Amino acid sequence: MPRRKSSLKKGRADKKKRLKNIRVKQELRKTLKKFQALVSAKSIDEAKKLLRKVYSLLDKAAKKKVIHPNLANRKKSRLTQRLLKAT
Between 72 and which of 30, 58, 60, 87 could a Cys-Cys bridge form, CB atoms 3.0 to 4.6 Å apart? Predict the structure, then answer.
């Protein structure tokens, strides 16, 4: 258990950051699953609309360092390929 005031404060801040990062990742996962379900169901128009939101969430997560920027780019590329194969 930390004893110094600064260590205690750092622990509180880390806990808040962790919870925020978890929320961002959960929203991202939920949206990705929804997108993949739409592609599987051949709802291409709806999937294209949702793809914009997925791109936005991935970029925001990468900008906030919740996920690595290369991971975001790789996911965007693969999702686009999946959508193009479905059409």
Answer: 58
Please give the Cα distance from 8 to 13 (Å, whole number): 9
Distance CA 60, CA 28 (A): 10
Give every CB contact of residue 38 below 8 A, 6+ residues apart in sequence.
46, 47, 50
pLDDT in tens, 50-79: 999 999 999 999 999 999 999 999 999 999
CATH architecture for segment(s) 5-86: Up-down Bundle (1.20)
Burial class (CB in 10 A: 0-12, 13-18, 19+), 7: exposed
